[in-house]
Design goal:
This protein has one helix and 13 strands; from the N terminus they run βββαββββββββββ. The chain has one helix at residues 33-38, and strands at 15-18, 21-24, 30-32, 45-46, 52-53, 59-61, 65-66, 73-74, 79-80, 84-85, 92-96, 99-103, 108-110. The longest helix has 6 residues, at 33-38.
């Protein structure tokens, strides 16, 4: 008997299939098994519009971001050059006018 795959989002084993897609009962994540077979080692990071981001890309902020621990704000429209993709919740490592920072890709768009 073949066991169900673990969820790629939350790593829990409580999954089920519905014809072509797999679903996680714990976090609600949905995925296609063929998507996981393409290249599981390379993680794709997408911007707010769904465009795939790569190391070295230039991006633009889509909303004002308050910088923790300071009274500074990164303004909407700020261009950030030469980003690096990293693992974690904040998946973009970059240098801004306020110094080095880690940002979430959901607040960026590819320039």
């Amino acid at each position: 008997m073949e066991s169900n795959p673990i969820c790629p989002a939350c790593q829990q084993p409580n999954t089920y299939t519905d014809t072509v897609s797999w679903f996680c009962t714990d976090c609600g994540h949905e995925w296609n098994e063929n998507d996981l077979l393409t290249d599981a080692d390379e993680r794709q990071v997408r911007d707010a519009n769904g465009t795939v981001l790569n190391d070295g890309d230039t991006v633009t902020l889509i909303k004002d971001l308050k910088v923790r621990g300071t009274s500074s704000v990164l303004k909407v429209g700020t261009k950030i050059k030469n980003i690096r993709i990293v693992d974690g919740d904040h998946d973009i490592d970059c240098k801004t006018e306020l110094g080095p920072m880690m940002l979430k890709s959901e607040f960026l768009k590819k320039a």
